[in-house]
Amino acid sequence: MAMWIEEMTGSHVLPSYVDIDYDAISQAVICTIVWSTDHAHDGGRWTDTYSAPATHSDSTIEIGILSHEANTDPEDYQFGGFLTVLGRDDKPKPTRFQTPTRHYPLLDSAPYNPNKTPQLSPLRYKTSINRPSGLHPTLTLTLPSAHLSAPDPSCKLHTYLTLPSALFIDKYQFSDALFLASKNLVALRSLSGATDLEAPEWVVPQWGSAALFELATPSSDTEKHTTDVMQTEHNISIPLHTRYLPASPSSHQAIDVPWPAVFWACRADEGSKHPQNPFDRRHLGYESLFGPKTRFMHVAPSSDVDRLVETIEVPVLDTGKVGLVEVGTVGIVVIAFLGLCWVLFGRVGGEKVEGEKKKQ
After folding, report:
1. Can you tell me where the transmembrane regions are (predicted)?
2. What is the rounded CA–CA span in Å between residue 36 and residue 154?
3. Which of 88, 101, 251, 257 is in the most buried spot, having the most CB atoms within 10 Å?
4. Counting Cβ atoms within 10 Å, is residue 127 exposed (0-12), middle (13-18) or buried (19+)?
């Protein structure tokens, strides 16, 4: 994959993410490669070099330099800049367009001003897992209470987890209202993938599982809300469970757990559904769990970490100590057998001696 990306883009740096989509009608494969930051590290400038495809090739390379512009509709993106197709255009063509979007970052709560570029909300979330995690780790989402207010009355806070096959969620735990309230959860809205509670990891056919939770937010009641804000942090706990893993040469095995996505799901104001936006990421897993008029306002993860992955150590059978276990098991069996023989045959011998003494 890395070599293919380098061949297609000419970049030696791995992108932030790669989306591959297939259109069955046009039979076209659409590949979207995104670098979220300047990957050239050359004074904030992009210094990549791209060449036009061969004349007999059906592929095209279009380069756009676009900037996000302010507009009168907060649910639309407006871009302005230049576009050019390598090998076809003699010079860049100026362009400006506006498109609705289902996905956009959470903005600050200041009144909307169409003459200014919207600013991002200071709300950030962190993900952590208890250490040591053991066989029942708990994933904790931490958000600052001061900024944890719904951008619109129709918005509900959600999180979407993608778990590897070594972990699973017990859906029956989340049927108790008191249990949900103690974890600051509203409900488990969806669970798909590998959901067998007893299967070990090596027999699970799927890559893992995915879960959608609706999260509880601090109460809107004035007195309680003031107390919650003074606590500065709002924690949501999601209990997980590990499957039995294959034996390994060490006593623990590392499991990577990606950070979940956190977003507000809100009802769109107009239209029966959102038209397609070329800049929207599609088929993210949770879009189909909401109606076509739902828009998503994403909460950004904390910028204090370099990798949005938590690594936990799970205990497994240590093959280096299997011999000691076998010796110990055999020893216990032998001792138990000798003890049983002593109880059975020793008691019979004692009864015979006592009987002979009585006859004398």
Report:
1. 327-350
2. 30
3. 257
4. buried
DSSP 19-57: EEEEETTTTEEEEEEE-SS-SS-BTTB------PPPTT-
The 3-state secondary structure of 207-233, one letter per residue:
CEEEEEEEECCCCCCHHHHHHHHHCCE
Amino acid code (one letter) for 118: P
Q: In what order do the strands lie in the sheet with 93-100?
A: 62-69, 76-85, 93-100
Give the model confidence (pLDDT) of 27-43 as tens digits: 878 777 777 665 544 45
DSSP conformation class of 74: T
| CA gap 350, 10 in Å, rounded | 91
Other beta carbons less than 10 A from residue 310's beta carbon: 18
Structure-token pair, residue 308: 């949005």
φ, ψ of residue 184 in degrees (nearest 5): 60, 40
Strand partners, 45: 42
Taking the C-alpha atoms of residue 308 and residue 332, their distance in angstroms, rounded to an integer, is 47
Please state, in angstroms and rounded to a whole number, the distance separating the CA atoms of residues 346 and 186. 65
